[in-house]
Amino acid sequence: MRRAGFSFVIVVVLALAVTPALFFAPAQAEGDAAPEPEKLVYDRDIKSFLDAACARCHAGKTRHGGLDMSTPALMLKGGVSGPAYVAGNSKKSLMIELIEFKEMPPKDEKPPLTKEELEKLREWIDAGAAE
């Protein structure tokens, strides 16, 4: 009888030793970290919808307010009101402010950016506005 009690204690001790490893083990082994989301890039992710909404008035020979939105470098150069955006900070970016307040694009011009496009633009700016 005494031997059975000793075996039971051994089983309980082993179970307690193994249980934390089962519940608190990392979900992924080191080196198997989930891949980071792909960084937004201007030419691939941003240019098409900005061109559609802004190029008519802010590219080529037409540069209302002195702003050319053909490239990120030209947007940073800005126009009479300053740079179109602040790389790394969409909250301080004039372009975002004007789009949010529905001042750009003008109501009689192109349709406004979609919520998804505006969010993508914010993400791109906040990530440093990679070309």
Task: Name the helicity range.
Answer: 40-55%
Helical stretch tally: 5
Helix/strand structural class: mainly alpha
> Main sheet, how many strands, which sense, barrel?
none
Low-confidence stretches: none
Order of helices and strands: HHEHHH
Proportion in β-strands: under 5%
Alpha-carbon Rg, integer? 28 Å
Total E-strand runs:
1
The chain-level mean pLDDT equals: 83
Termini separation comes to 77 Å
Shape: globular
Description of the structure:
The N and C termini lie far apart (77 Å). This protein is mostly helical.
What is the fold's blueprint, element by element?
Blueprint lengths: L1 H23 L17 H17 L3 E2 L8 H6 L16 H7 L14 H12 L5
Notable features of this structure?
globular; 131 residues; mainly alpha; 50% helix
Brief sketch in words of this structure:
This protein has helices spanning 2-24, 42-58, 72-77, 94-100, 115-126; one strand spanning 62-63. The chain has 131 residues and is mainly alpha-helical. The protein starts with a helix and ends in a 5-residue tail after the last helix.
